[in-house]
Automatic annotation (TrEMBL):
One Pfam family linked to the record: Abhydrolase_2
Protein name: Phospholipase/carboxylesterase
Family: Belongs to the AB hydrolase superfamily. AB hydrolase 2 family.
InterPro entries on file: AB_hydrolase_fold, LYPA1-2/EST-like, PLipase/COase/thioEstase
Length: 231
């Protein structure tokens, strides 16, 4: 049984009742502190739950193993998504936030485990904003789960050499086929989170859940894309 002690993590409670809690999922080589500024920029006043991936790839933190560059260990994806869902359940019990307002925010490898959690454990997340995400099960067709009405924002670079736009479009199709209210926001860049995409995600989040308008004074540093280098 997964507990909150099984993941190094940071938890910051929401400033007021009614604010969402963001599950922050870092990219490869980063840690539980990497996306805190992004979370604050996306939803000022939101609760922040930011765990660290438990897979060590030559000193780099990851959420699941891969067989080689661009090829996921899909069995490990399935197992690790189950661990993350268990962590979320334990965190709800420990910290007392409303799971109906839990929105995953992930970049690259973190976005992939967020997508896997949506597809494999429906009901764990109320929604997700995923940047540079691929279809996490790759050539396996996900089960026909019910994601009816689940809001998902996908930010994808048309020139991304790591998570190709075709990978992002496949994930978009898989989510839509299962009823998710998916928004695919394509940009001309690569493996990154450009300011225009961040602004689009802020607007999406305001319209998709119990949050407040973003403060224009809040500016987030981009996720550690240089350290990431892979999905």
């Amino acid at each position: 049984m997964t507990t909150t002690e099984d993941f190094h993590h940071v938890y910051v409670p929401a400033e007021e009742p009614g604010h969402p809690t963001l599950l922050l999922l870092h990219g490869t080589g980063a840690d539980e502190h990497d996306l805190l500024a992004l979370g604050r920029a996306l939803a000022p006043g939101a609760g922040l739950l930011s765990p660290r991936g438990n897979v060590d790839e030559q000193g780099a933190n990851r959420w699941f193993r891969r067989l080689r560059e661009g090829v996921f260990d899909v069995d490990d994806v399935v197992a690790r998504a189950g661990e993350l869902a268990g962590f979320v359940s334990a965190a709800v019990d420990r910290y007392g936030f409303d799971p109906r307002s839990l929105i995953a925010v992930g970049f690259s490898n973190g976005a992939n485990i967020g997508a896997a959690t949506l597809l494999l454990h429906p009901g764990t997340l109320a929604g997700a904003a995923l940047f540079a995400a691929a279809a996490p099960l790759q050539d396996r067709e996900p089960a026909d789960v019910d994601l009816s009405g689940t809001p998902v924002f996908l930010g994808a670079g048309q020139a991304d050499p790591i998570t190709t736009i075709d990978d992002a479009r496949l994930l978009d199709r898989q989510l839509r086929a299962r009823g998710a209210d998916a928004t695919l926001h394509e940009h001309r860049g690569g493996h990154e989170l450009p300011p225009a995409v961040l602004a689009a995600a802020q607007s999406w989040l305001v319209g998709s859940g119990p949050t407040v308008s973003p403060d224009p004074r809040n500016r987030a540093e981009p996720p550690s894309a240089a350290a990431d280098g892979t999905g």
